[in-house]
Amino acid sequence: CTVTERLQALTAPGFSIEFFPPRDEPDEAVLWRSIRQLEPLDPSYMSITYGAGGSNRDGTIRSIARVATDTTLVPMAHLTAVGHSVAELRQVIGHFAAVGVRNILALRGDPPGDPMGEWIAHPDGLNYAEELVRLVRELGDFCVGVAAFPYGHPRSADLDTDTRYLVRKLRAGADFAVAQLFFEAEDFLRLRDRAAAAGSDAPIIPGIMPLTTPRTLRKTIELSGATPPSWLLDRLEPLADDPAAFRAEGLNVVTELCERLLAEGVPNLHFYTFNRAKATRELVSRLGLSPALAPVA
Ligand code: FAD
Question: What's the DSSP call for residue 258?
Fold first, then answer.
């Protein structure tokens, strides 16, 4: 079944989970332990990222194939155009189809090394995610997602331009979008409003990072591409040297964010797991997102 079918079938708010491809055997064992701990909670779908600059693509293909064959989860593979010729992209998409993966998050990717360095397309490759959406569609009966940016993509001139290109790639054949990390519910809701005002009613799923450590906070700031609000730093930075207190307050912050999103009718929350299950299980439980886990006060 596809991500769209799962989202449409939701009768209560759901959640999805994201992993990265393992680099070695110990990593792989950690990944699979986490997948098995989250699988019984019945997430809407699970996704595996594509290595930066197109690296470790075999890891993505191998892991997503195993998810498709050995689990009850709905798998979605991330795929980036960077560094690949169209022939290579066709081949990877063919691999996904062959192992039963019907959902692809179509991305352009960042240049390897410096993400904000000059974008250089592969001489026989693609320039924008929009073209990858078309290619994936052309090659099979896939459900396709794209990336959306609450603060605008760092390379976009302004929010209007950013919204125009988001809507273009949705119209090119994407079924839904997943939003980059953000700090406040309003930042996400404004993105949703911009897309709707520009004529798109495709679902946009918010990306959520469980803020368990100072490192996850730094990563969130980096990925969001925005300046964090002072209230957030005031709540978490004083706890940087107390891991238990940081984790507790970090998860409180994320719970409050998720509650606000759910109150605004967001149907599905997408959690970055960093290949661990514990924090996501805790949030799913607190938010009552899975009948398999009793809500915790
Ligand atoms: P595009 O949609 O192509 O946009 C790139 C830039 O070009 C934007 O500034 C846009 O406004 C502009 N643009 C778009 N179309 C046009 C056009 N037709 N003409 C002119 N300008 C245009 N990276 C990885 O390496 N692996 C992953 O697994 C991964 N997963 C991600 C998941 C999510 C949910 C998100 C939000 C990002 C992810 N990324 C991943 C990062 C992503 O690859 C980068 O943010 C990349 O810089 C942008 O990708 P895009 O698909 O949004 O690009």
Answer: H
